[in-house]
Design a protein that fits this description.
The complex is a heterodimer. Chain A is an alpha/beta fold. Chain A has two domains: about 150 residues, Rossmann fold (3-Layer(aba) Sandwich), CATH 3.40.50; about 220 residues, Rossmann fold (3-Layer(aba) Sandwich), CATH 3.40.50.1100. Chain A is built from 16 helices and 14 strands. Chain A has a six-stranded mixed beta sheet with strand order 3-4-14-9-10-13, sandwiched between helices. In chain A, strands 7-6-5-8 form a four-stranded parallel beta sheet, sandwiched between helices. The model of chain A has no long low-confidence stretch (mean pLDDT about 95). By secondary structure, chain B is α/β, with parallel strands linked by helices. Chain B has a single domain, classed as Aldolase class I (TIM Barrel). In chain B, about 50% of the residues lie in helices and about 15% in strands. Chain B has a nine-stranded parallel beta sheet. In chain B, β7, α9 and β8 form a beta-alpha-beta unit. In chain B, α2 runs parallel beside α12 and α5 packs across α6. The longest helix of chain B is centred in the last third of the chain and has 20 residues. The radius of gyration of chain B is 16 Å and the shape is globular. The chains are: A alpha/beta, B alpha/beta. Chains A and B meet through α2, α9 and β11 of A and α3, α5 and β6 of B. The complex binds pyridoxal-5'-phosphate. Pyridoxal-5'-phosphate (PLP) binds next to α6, α11 and α15 of chain A. Pyridoxal-5'-phosphate binds next to α6, α11 and α15 of chain A.
Amino acid sequence: MNQAQSAAKFGRYGGCFVPETLVQPVMEVASAYSRLKASPEFRRELEEMLKHFAGRPTPLYFAKNLSRDLGRRIYLKREDLVHGGAHKLNNTLGQALVAKHMGKTRLIAETGAGQHGVATAIVGANLGFETQVYMGEVDIERQKMNVYRMELMGAEVIPVRSGSRTLKDAINEAMRDWSSSFENTYYLFGTAAGPHPFPSMVRDFQSVIGAEARGQIQEAEGRLPDSIVACVGGGSNAMGIFAPFLKDDVRLIAVEAGGRGLGHDDKTADHGASLGCGQDGILHGSLTRILQDPHGQILESYSIAAGLDYPGVGPELAYLAERGRIKTATADDRAALRGFRTLSRREGIIPALESAHAVGYVLREPEALGDLAIINVSGRGDKDLATVMEYENL
Amino acid sequence: MKISEAFRNKPLLIVYICAGDPSPEETPDLVRRLVRAGADIVELGLPHSDPIADGPTIQAAAQRAIAAGMNTDLYFQAAADANVDCPLIFMGYYNMVYARGLDRFARDCAKSGIAGMIVPDLPPEEAGPLREACRRHGVDLIFLAAPNTPPERLQMIQENTSGFLYLVARAGVTGARSDIQEATRDLIARASGDVPTAVGFGISTPEHAAEVIRSGADAAIVGSACVDLIARGELDRLEQLVRQMKEAVRRAKTQ
Ligand SMILES: Cc1ncc(COP(=O)(O)O)c(C=O)c1O
């Protein structure tokens, strides 16, 4: 195995399982990124945008009421305050600058909850790209507000009618587009999954979350936390906050969507817990843990949070889970709704339903946290109000 | 029959269909019909839930086949039941192979008359373990090259492929198209050498097939056009199309 290939792997996970037509485009992204990563000028450009446009650094907020309730010190990393309302912009800014340097003029992206689509539409408008976002029909229905936000910023939302009409099919469709449009088009992948170099590149761009949190907790508490809790869809907010702590004695807890329960039928799992319930397999370009039937057909996943409704997960998380470096857990729809309501009532912060899974886990198992914990509040909940209202009327 | 034996009578016509479409029971008979009409090799697709290299026609076929109950066990059963003299080739996504186990998959191919495997989302760099399994069971592992494959990489792929080299006629996904591009002719020219070549993706008429053979390819692969006729239940026209394409391929050789 040559060096480029081993860089693409996390143990046996990861890799680059793409059709031949996409091998070259993916390799071009990898080489552009490794060149730019080392460029002080590129880093400065990105830092400027993160500061003046995205609104970084985000606060590490001491949640005094939640801390009192749970009898330990709990901080919230406020990614809900990033421009656009979620951590997603950290990644889209980074990758859009890579695309710019590569001379691409068009961005394509997939989106589930619409947050990554919105973050892509933002950079598309700001940096002057033509932008098209693939979104499953089912997700378009449950995230109407984000569809309108994308359109306001000039992005075209393309409905995906194939397969389960959710995030995984939107990714399929974006990859199909890219396999004939790569000359002028950059595929702005939204999470720390997919073929190499996306898992590493997205992790790197999201690591600003953990790097800031590390300095902030040192300053506030004079030490590192005992634990960090993050929700996991594909894994970008989790890898972003975990990565700078991997070598430390800090408990890293990855909370997946428990949905309606951990069962499944022939075609559909009742959850999105690929780390907890999946097996090794290949989906969207990498070997990772996936939800599948015994023959290898991908199951549809389920979660009340569209952003966690994905039958795969980033390969680095699969690797870290197998090695025991991260602890995996699930929070079901009810636990997430409890987290949603509790954080709103107790702290005056309405979290995204995705982030509410991390909060719900903390409410359920506070003893797992130790004395000092950070929850990554990956996004704000405004986009989810209709979903929650509908759920409560049932 | 080995793939290399089939290529002794080149140029060839290779026909792709999706196993299980419209139903698993009908697949063996469809394969026999294709062979009767002149297919030299039948590429039998195993339907997958997430076929990222396929366009709408083959996606829809895969969905119909899965809904009709097609799975990997029935797939091998259908291949064995077809019981044809010409080589069959497996075409399918890597997760389906991986889920069964690489060695078991290659062995089941050998047992059911499948002489080669095409796995479009498995580039040679990732294919070491499957290549070993294929070698153990005497199954060819066929790799693909595309118009944007650079020269050194093309050479690496030529060295790694066995049976033949699959040339992807154009960027993008599978599906019927209206012409053969300059890029296709260029790729055929670049790839000509010791390893036989077969051109697929977008070839839907006898004229296309003749043109790729005239450009120097050893085989033409037709997929979506046939899948489309199966979807419409027009099996007589399917046989007619295969016959015409075979005729065009043969005639292109003698020109
Ligand atoms: C607010 C928020 N958090 C989390 C996620 C899950 O993605 P990831 O696991 O990549 O952080 C999403 C995805 O859309 C999201 O919008």
